[in-house]
Amino acid sequence: MKRILIINGHPDKESFNFALSEAYKQGAAQSDAEIKEITIRELDFNPNLQFGYRKRTELEPDLLDAQDKLKWADHLVWIYPVWWGSVPAMMKGFLDRVLLPGFAFHKRVDSLWWDKCFTGKTARIICTLDQPAWYYRLVYGSPSHHAMRKVTMHYIGVKKVRITAIGPIRLSKEEFRAKWLKKVEKLGQTNQ
Length: 192
What we know:
By secondary structure, this protein is of the alpha/beta class.
């Protein structure tokens, strides 16, 4: 039985990202998967890693719970909007505070190399854009995709990362959104 963690990084609960999150969850519920969720907007934490890695910032209870869920999961589903070629500030703060040395990776003594703690896990990124996905890829080079897939997920050991980019959302019609909700529900059904 696959263990799926859905992480929603949109700060507005009325956003289409929440409908996408629910669609994925409904699909996954139709399979034999176990499902847990993290809704970053509902967590009580300081998103600022105020001392960097120089000095430890104690983790709030919500972040400790998030780490337990991240450890538990086989498959991570990240759902968020792309803003300014990146993730929302609150989600970036979540990544900074949760994916810490000693948890997500271990630095080797007297070495530039590190050991990855999330090997064997898979991920799906579902992100929304205010432009067509092809335009984001061709004109801007998909910076958020590279940051999440290579710089974050690959860095901690998640090698198999698939991306579903949905856009443009702004000015989109109901039929467009309904089509994507069905596609995302199917991704959940197949645990992808």
